[in-house]
Amino acid sequence: MRLIKELRGTKQTLYTCFLRIETNVYAFIFLRLRSIRFLCLVALTLPPVSTSIVLLTLRAIDWMREQRAAKTSQHFVALSPQLPWYFRLARGQEAPTTMKVTELGFTISLLRTIFVFNHVASVLGGVYDVADRHKGSDFLTGFRFEALGSADPTHGRVDYVDGKTAAAMNLTFATEDSMIIKVDSTKKLDPSGPGRPSVRLRSTNEYTTFVVVAHLTHMPQGCGTWPALWTLTSTDNWPAEGEIDIMEGTNDLGPNAMTLHTSSGCMMPHVRPQAGTTNSTDCNAFINFNQGCSVQSGNPKSFGPSFNKAGGGWVAAERSNDSISVWFWSSGDPNVPKSVSGWESKVDTSTFGNPDAFFPNTFCDIPSHFGPQNIVIDCTLCGDLASVTYATAGCPGDCVDFVNTLPEAFVDAYWEFKSITVYT
To answer: Where in the sequence numbering do the catalytic residues fall?
Structure first.
C-alpha cells in the first residue's frame, strides 16, 4: 500500500513523503493531514534508517489509531497510552484494557513514538577504525593482480594481465599521491587473438563488516568501457556469499549504479530512505539476467565524463549486519564529512547523511547472504552488459570491432585513485 502526499510549506518547499508497507500482514491506517505532514517533515530530517524501524513505527501508529477509534486503551495512564509490548517490557505484566484514550493522550503518544524512533534512528550507523590505507606508491602493496587473460567472467573483450606485464606496458604506475590503472590504448587487436590488455586488482585482505572510502580524481570513460569498483566473496561460492557493486556503469551512461547480487531470498523494499532511485528489488543473481537489486544515483557527477569533469570525488560503502549503504560526494562538495576527506583514523557513518543507495535487512538477512569480501577494481570492455547498452549510448558500429580497431579511443579509460581506505 502506498501513501504519496505532496505538502507545500510557507516557503514554497515541496515535501514528498513515500510510505510503503511491503507486506500484507499489517494494514496502514491513514493519519489526518497534520499528522502526515509532521511525520513527513520528521522523516525528511532523519538519517538513513532500516525499513524495519519505519515499519515498526507504522505498526505503532496503526495500533494507536485503532485504540483511539475504539475509545479504549490497554494502558494505565489515560493521557499517555503505551504500546502493549512497551508496557510488558517496563512493568513485567500484561497491559490493562480499561482506560479511555483522549485527543491529548493520543497526540502525546504519537509525538513520543516519533521522538523515540527519531532517537533510535539518530544513533544508527557505526564507528569504525582504520584497518588499511592504500595510496601513491604503496597502493599496490594491498592488492594482487588477477591475470585472468581473456577468461573474463563477464565475457569482455579484454586480456587481464599480470603485474609485470602491466608495469612493462605502463598500465599501472604511481606518483607520490596517485595510482593510475589503465586500459591499453596503443595497439590494434587481431580479431582472433586476445582482447585489449587491461588490469583487474583484488585486495589481499578480506573484510566482513567494514567501511571502504575511495578518493578518485578520474575513472575510465569512453564507448565500450565497463568500469567497476566492487566487492566480491573471497571464495568461488558466488553468488551465495554476495557481491556489492559500489561504482559501476557502461559506455558513459550515468549516473552511478549501485547493486547487490546474491543467492535467492534477498529482497529490497522499493521505497526506502536514500537519495537514489530504485531500479530493481530482487537481489537474486539467477533471475532477471543477473540484474540484482540496483539503485541509480541521483547525482549526475557520480559517473563517467561528468565525474571526471568535476574532478572526481569520494565514494564510501558500509557493510554492516543491518544494512549496506553507499554514499557519494563530488569534488568540492561542502557536505563531504571531514572524516572522509581528511583521512582520519575513525569514521562514524551516522554523520554521513542520506546515502545514495540504502539496502536494509528488512527482507534480506545480510550476514547469511554476504560472506567476507575482497575489494575489486577493473575495467572490462563490451561483455555481457556493455555490449547490450553500446548502441543505446550512441556508440558507433559494433562494440567488439570498435575495441579491436580503435586503440586511441581508450586514452581516457583509466582509474586515478588518490587513496582507498578501509575501516573495520
So the answer is: 243, 248
